[in-house]
Specification:
Number of helices: 2
Largest sheet: 4 strands, mixed
Order of helices and strands: EHEHEE
Strand order of the largest sheet: 2-1-3-4
Helix content: 25-40%
Structural class: alpha+beta
Distance between the termini: 18 Å
Strand content: 15-25%
Radius of gyration: 11 Å
Length: 66
């Protein structure tokens, strides 16, 4: 299952959730606070920005426009 690391107040995160819902893609939302620098999240996205989508294959997509 896809995992979406997001924060509810970030516009890019809202855009990503909207696009995934419009495409009827099932995903597991995971709340991520960008100001709390977790090492596992920074390993996926060194910029520390949300949203980040991780696919079943382990592909990491950062940003809402991707």
């Amino acid at each position: 299952m896809k995992t979406l690391h997001h924060h509810p107040l970030y516009a890019a995160s809202r855009t990503a959730r909207l696009i995934l819902a419009e495409r009827d893609l099932v995903f597991m939302p995971k709340l991520e606070s960008p100001w709390k620098r977790h090492d596992d999240f920074l390993a996926m996205n060194p910029a520390g920005a949300v949203p980040v989508l991780v696919t079943e294959d382990g592909i990491v997509l950062s940003g809402a426009m991707v």
